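Follow-up to my earlier ticket, as requested here are the two runs.
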Amino acid sequence: MKDCLFCKIANKEIPSSVVYEDDKVFAFNDIAPQAPVHILVIPKTHVATLSDVKDHSVLADIFKIVNKIAAEKGLDKSGFRTVINTGRAAGMAVHHLHVHILGGREFSWPPG
């Protein structure tokens, strides 16, 4: 999508701190981290929200990389949180499907 911030990041029109990239998935460090590790994992094709997913293989592609990154960062041993916000009421600021990987500290429940 032409005006999507995350599409521009995935297309490298806007610089980011790249963590992972392949032909389907792009991962980068969040610019306002909420934990010592805070990485966003996005599909390279534009999907606005989780509710808009039509081809569910995109979720498999994303979560395969979530697990890969978590293992590389050692989070698979200590624990990590994944978050998908869907819609403004949930706190979604950029309308491009993205999974937050959060780790490196203790988390409480409920999340807020």
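Run two:
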Amino acid sequence: MVKKTWWIAWLLATSLLILSVSPVFAATSTLGFKIWPAKTTTEVNKVWTITFNSPLLSTSVNSNTVYVTDSKQIKVATTSKLSSDGLSVTVTPSGAYTAGDYHLYITNGLTSWANIQLSEMIIVPFTVTVPTSYLASVNLVVTVTDDFKAVYPNDLSGFLMLEGKSGNRLGSSTKDLVTGKYTFNIYADDDYSLNLLSVNNGVMNTRTIKLPTIKLPVIKIPTTGTTTTTKPTVKTANLVISTEAGVGGGKSGAIGGSIIPEKWGVPVKVSNATMTWTTATDIDGKFKVYLPTGSYQLDINSNGSQYKKHRYKLTVTAGQMASPLGAVNVEEPINKLGLELEPPVVDIGLGELSGIIATTKEIHGSVNKDATVNIYDTVPLTPVLITSVKPDINGNFVAKLPSALIGKKLQIKVIDSAENVYILNMASVIS
């Protein structure tokens, strides 16, 4: 605990003017006192230390010369103690302070060994703010094993960390390679994910597991003001690393494939509701991810924004590898995602929409079956969605428009299941 310290000078001149103060009203009067700047403390058992530059007479240190009053100027029970060298006085409350305003009085009843009184009397206002609770930390203990439930060897062959939505990043504070346990000390509420970064086949791989939201427990502070020590709350999580040996042993499965043209470093992501694996194609344009059995979404990026991203739904079976049918063309043009409009509404090229007038009630057309057609008004600074429609089993759609189109400027945005986008905009506002 850091104690406040004040230096109070003694005037040793023989011509010292001695201030008088009535002993009857000393506890409640501010007459003749200099008021110092107010202090604030959260310590309910706050001990004040007052340091002097000349030794004091021990007989001058008592509850009438140094004391504390509450907001009603009623004395608070304290003990004043002089240090062995006579140069400092500590003022300790007999019981914990409650939240509120107080005053520390230092009077000229204090005298030095030379029998000289304090040159000025001082009042130090202070406020005690007592929190009702505080947040305890959380220790997250992560047990890492392979798909045979054996402790994962070689210190993960990578780097394990926690990452929160707010940007918090934490490495493990301790790790036990014998038991496979990694401990993370958490001091902030957040939605954390557990990330394992490693390098395989010359590409970076990340395995991510979403964790339940971590909220630090609220610890109530005893009203007596006694200090308590609370152990961190312990939470646990498991990270199972699927391996090639696990696939061969019927414990895990895999998702893999290849792209054309063959290219190193094209991003690949495999995910489900709680886990994500990210990797990239190797120098031969191939990729492979080992993972538990179950249903997954495979996303393969493209070689550029003008090309289509690809998305697949795959089921992983123990001992087998699921793959897209054939190599994935990462230079397949987005084109129009199958969008064809029926006149008088037309796509006149270069992303421009035409043929819509104030009396237009519907837009008819066709689109890829996995796409959604969204129509916006782009006059507002933030475009407003007017309607959204999906095609039927044949890829045909009818988008119904509101009766009042005057003053609107329409945009047709088509988004497919892989989040590829094709956009048409009107050149001017409908009049």
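The only thing I checked on run two: The CA atoms of residues 209 and 275 lie 5 Å apart. Let me know what else you need.
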